[in-house]
Amino acid sequence: MRKNIVAGNWKMNLNHAEGLQLFAEILNLVNSDIKGNQEVVICPPFVHISSLAQLLKADSNVSVGAQNCHQADSGAYTGEISASMLKSSGATYVIIGHSERRAFFAEDDLVLAQKLDSVLKNELTPIFCIGETLEQRNAGTHFDVIESQLKEASFHLNDGQFRQLVLAYEPVWAIGTGLTATPEQAQEVHAFIRSKVSEHYGAELANDLTILYGGSCNPKNAADLFSQADIDGGLIGGASLKALDFIDIIKVFNS
Ligand SMILES: O=C[C@H](O)COP(=O)(O)O
């Protein structure tokens, strides 16, 4: 059965005390609202990961993830954090290829492929983000862009590796803008992504793959988005910083 995931990407927000408080609120509210095939992932800034992970219960469906990592295991890369460090701090997921990393830190397909390799080697789950800009959508090239991002950074993986991935479709024009892809627009791209995965890795693997939607997802639009056949949850930015909004998004799977 395909796993449903609601992941919160806190981005560069919340100091340590604020992060601990929000996480405690989420843990208090979430446990009774979570189903067996559902997982909640919180991706705080690096410096909060260890403290948050220590609050997790062993059998919890809540996990802690990171927002990025370096592609090397260790070395002279001042200021960087490796996947093995994240694992040792209690993270089990890592967001790779977020459009903000691509845009502000010049991360290209080659480095993202290396990051995926490193995350998988360290037995963490990548949440691999792909999505087009507004210019690309207006030019009608969004399917080509998405196919290229997918192929160039992830289709070198073997079946067993690719099976570990969670994908996230995040149209750049919808991130933090209040503009959401319509459920039909999002479903169209999710179905396209699944079809490309199916062509390369086979229908069974494609059918099992969790594909999240991200981009101004909130308690009001989550139900329509998550009810689409190929949308298996969300990667939530702004709305993950408010416990009640985030919980309302999680509850969509129970309604
Ligand atoms: O990683 C999350 C996405 O960038 C979505 O952010 P947003 O919900 O604030 O639009």
From TrEMBL:
It catalyses: D-glyceraldehyde 3-phosphate = dihydroxyacetone phosphate. It holds the Pfam family TIM. Its main location: cytoplasm. Keywords: Cytoplasm, Gluconeogenesis, Glycolysis, Isomerase. Pathway: Carbohydrate degradation; glycolysis; D-glyceraldehyde 3-phosphate from glycerone phosphate: step 1/1; Carbohydrate biosynthesis; gluconeogenesis. One of its GO terms (cellular component) is cytosol. The active site is at H98, E170. PROSITE patterns: TIM_1, TIM_2. One of its GO terms (molecular function) is triose-phosphate isomerase activity. It is found in: Cytoplasm. Gene3D superfamilies: Aldolase class I. Its EC number is 5.3.1.1. Belongs to the triosephosphate isomerase family. This is Triosephosphate isomerase. It comes from Daejeonella lutea.
